[in-house]
Amino acid sequence: MKTFKKEFINKALKGIGFKELTDVQKQVIPLIENKRDLIVEANTGSGKTHAFLVPIFESIDISKNEIQALILAPTRELAKQIHQFATEMANYSEEKINVDLYIGGSDKQNVIKKLSKGMPHIAIGTPGRVNDLAIKENVLKIYTAKHFVIDEADMTLDSNFLDEVSSILSTIDNKAIKTVFSATIPQALKPFLKKYLRNPEIINVHPKDISSLNINHFFIKTREQNRFNTLTKLIGALNPYLAIIFCNTKESSELVYEWMKEKKQNVTLIHGGLDYRKRKQLMKRINKLEFQYIVATDIFSRGIDVLGVSHIINYELPRNIEFYIHRTGRTGRVDFDGIAISMYEFDDNKYLDKLESKGIKSVYKDISNGVLKDAIMRSARAKREWKENELDYAAKARINKPKKVKPGYKKKYKLAVEEEKKKIHKKRRRK
């Protein structure tokens, strides 16, 4: 693996468990070191967080008590996760590197009081709170930052945050290295990025083909009936270790949650409308695996790792196909196969065609007598005329059948998750 100038970085990467840099890290780190502005499209799980953290730590001048890097993330949970990774690396340094988190839900006056005593070397936060502290209160001195990172840009630069991010960028030094990361960069955001980035290099990294992941993709036709009818049958057919049921809106997630409670299921609900303190408490309980089902919106689909997710259920297909990939990427981990089950209607046929063209091996299912059984494939799929540059799965005479769940799989899953948690705990205790 590449050796870095600062020895603590090499120790940190080894302690965290890195054996080799990922594809995105191999491409991004040298370019940031060469002070290039970047737009990086990379999938969740590609290692992009350390792709920007490593060169930031390489450039930190500990003798300067000023902000040298500012990192923005769209949600408190994601900002906390980046902060956790950054703190984990900083702990390997013999000299103290200050890494601070700025998100809503914390006591603002205490934050202002702390900032009056000095700035952190690395500031991580959400656009709203950073804008509040840096622009409105003028206590977070971000103009000294030599690195500026926007993570999950398609969410961070959402219309709700665009004004805040614009204000923040207008304060950042023009010579600062600006790096934007996202699974996708929507066309509508490109003028905004062109305005603030200096001749950025665009990097597109997809380290794993979707079809190579350990996920079986099942699709169940609702037959245009009430979706709760299908969900009733599905819950009866499954016995997941931990399942996330994804909904498109806060309103539909609340309806599904209430329905699950009426069915006496061990379930919780998480969406952006919940109070942050409640979300924080829920995340602790979720990580302790206190629930069998989590009903969630897409706030839970990006970057948040929960060990032990055996099933993903799309109560509603996400409007953006990329979010399908984010959602299903929550499972298929800890060396276990994951199962993603999506409800669809006749009007979703074009959507499913697009998924298949991206490499999703779709298996169509019905539920009969409490059991998932193979269904006749969509007629539209059989009639489809494939383009030469697309993967023609229809031409492959068979589709690999998913592995049957063996008795005692939940116990084995639990043991594997506990073992993985022990490894993570050991890494965090090392210095």
What's the topology here?
Layout: H1 7-16, H2 23-33, E1 38-42, H3 48-59, E2 69-72, H4 76-90, E3 99-102, H5 108-115, E4 122-125, H6 127-136, E5 147-150, H7 153-156, H8 162-171, E6 177-182, H9 190-196, E7 201-205, E8 215-221, H10 227-237, E9 243-246, H11 250-262, E10 267-270, H12 276-287, E11 293-296, E12 311-314, H13 321-328, E13 338-344, H14 349-357, E14 362-368, E15 371-374, H15 379-383, H16 409-429
Parallel strand pairs: 1-6, 1-7, 2-4, 2-5, 3-4, 5-6, 8-13, 8-14, 9-11, 9-12, 10-11, 12-13
Antiparallel strand pairs: 14-15
Helix pairs in contact: 2-3, 3-4, 6-8
Unreliable parts: 380-406
Main sheet attributes: strand count, strand direction, barrel closure: 8 strands, mixed
> How many β-strands, per DSSP?
15
What is the rounded distance between the termini?
Answer: 20 Å
How does the overall form come out from the CA principal axes? Answer: globular
Kindly provide the name of the CATH class of the largest domain.
Alpha Beta
Strand order of the largest sheet: 10-11-9-12-13-8-14-15
What is the structural class? Answer: alpha/beta
What's this entry about, in short?
By secondary structure, the chain is of the alpha/beta class.
Note the main attributes of this structure.
Rossmann fold; 7-stranded parallel sheet; 8-stranded mixed sheet; 15 strands; alpha/beta; 431 residues; globular
